[in-house]
Design brief:
The longest helix has 23 residues. The chain has a domain of 218 residues: Orthogonal Bundle (Hypothetical protein af1432), CATH 1.10.3210. Helix 1 packs antiparallel against helix 2 and helix 6 packs across helix 8. By secondary structure, the chain is an alpha+beta fold. The protein contains 14 helices and seven strands. The strands form two sheets. It has a four-stranded mixed sheet with strand order 1-2-5-6. A three-stranded antiparallel sheet has the order 3-7-4.
Length: 368
């Protein structure tokens, strides 16, 4: 949520806060299921708790904003798994072999599928925590959800997570809150502008690392991720990656604001002074006329070449789905013992039309 502080100054919570919160909810969920007679051994409970505690350990600086920039094509889930496997090796005396079951649950290789669903699914404790936490720290009330009620309504059928019928309303509110938070907080136009500016800074730095004569080196672990990535996960310097944090990126930006490259200098000085891109979001694609006008305006104002222009003026699209039909369908245990899906029940709020993705188009440009 670091860049969301540009819009919501109270969003000062960290990834550690979230991981501990998700761990707490996992403990609560397991206790509720065991009280209902669901067979969960102490070893399985401990493994599930370890998996959720480590589920986001693969996040790098500024989390999702730079997720596919520093290591193109590698998700934070891939890196979390890589780190968990590293912790589980013989070299780690304290943990060697102790995370094997947690890794099975994390990768959905364990027969009791509901344990993985608690970590990654439509109603996982990860989402239950971050929605409540982000809502509290941003002050956006639309994200307030009854997570305690949802956890109490969970049970298991055929090793899969299901929701008791009386919990339908709470689940529907959770799904709607997720969509509202997505567009009001996570994809707020000012948040998008700040995140895209950070992305463009890193992309320009990576380009300069290959082509510029003036050094772009920072003297930190960040330097290892300016060179092109092979795309092979086994080539990742995990030790260097784990040394990276927000401070490395911010220090680099402070240094790069004085770089001779005009584009990098402009982007860095602008983000440090909170003068980010002007971003406009709309339901219709950006017209050619609007796009050409924006490009010409930015190119003239900053005296840019065509190659440089793409860093200061660009367009894109974002989409979000209220509820995904298919493998992740939320199953409802009816009072008569039958199973249904949340979209098939009588007077369902979450129906097929609401499951269609909402798509928005944006254009970002830098003004004088």
């Amino acid at each position: 949520m670091a860049l969301a502080q540009l819009v919501y100054p109270g969003a000062v919570h960290t990834r550690l806060h979230h991981s501990l919160g998700a761990y707490h909810l996992m403990c609560t969920a397991i206790a509720e299921l065991k009280d209902k007679g669901i067979d969960i051994t102490e070893e399985e409970a401990q493994a599930a708790k370890a998996a959720i505690l480590l589920h986001d350990i693969g996040h790098g600086p500024f989390s999702h904003a730079l997720e596919h920039v520093l290591l193109k094509g590698v998700s934070h889930e891939d890196l979390s798994l890589l780190i968990m496997k590293s912790l589980n090796t013989e070299e780690n005396v304290k943990l060697k072999g102790k995370l094997s079951l947690a890794i099975q649950i994390f990768t959905n290789q364990y027969p009791k599928k509901f344990l993985h669903q608690l970590i990654s699914g439509q109603l996982d404790v990860d989402r239950l925590d971050y929605l409540s936490r982000d809502s509290f720290f941003t002050g956006v009330s639309e994200g307030v959800i009854g997570y305690q009620r949802i956890l109490k309504m969970l049970t298991v059928q055929d090793q899969a997570l299901v929701v008791e019928e009386k919990g339908i309303t709470s689940v529907e509110k959770f799904l709607v809150s997720r969509r509202l938070m997505y567009w009001q907080v996570y994809m707020h136009k000012s948040v998008v502008a700040a995140e895209k500016m950070l992305v463009k800074i890193m992309e320009r730095a990576q380009w300069l690392h290959q082509h510029a004569t003036e050094s772009i080196a920072t003297g930190s672990s960040l330097d290892d991720f300016l060179a092109p990535f092979s795309g092979k996960i086994e080539d990742i310097d995990l030790k260097a990656y784990c040394q990276l944090d927000d401070i490395d990126v911010l220090s680099a930006i402070k240094k790069w604001q004085h770089h001779s490259d005009k584009v990098l200098s402009i982007l860095c000085s602008r983000i440090l002074n909170r003068k980010c891109f002007k971003c406009r979001m709309q339901s219709e694609p950006i017209s050619d006329q609007e796009w050409n006008k924006a490009c010409q305006q930015v190119k003239t104002q900053f005296d840019l070449s065509d190659d440089e222009l793409s860093y200061l003026c660009f367009k894109g699209e974002a989409s979000n789905t209220l509820y995904k039909q298919g493998d992740e369908t939320i199953k409802i245990l009816l009072k008569n013992g039958d199973l249904s899906t949340i979209s098939e029940i009588d007077n369902a709020l979450i129906n097929e039309s609401l499951s269609a993705p909402i798509k928005k188009f944006y254009i970002c440009l830098l003004n004088e």
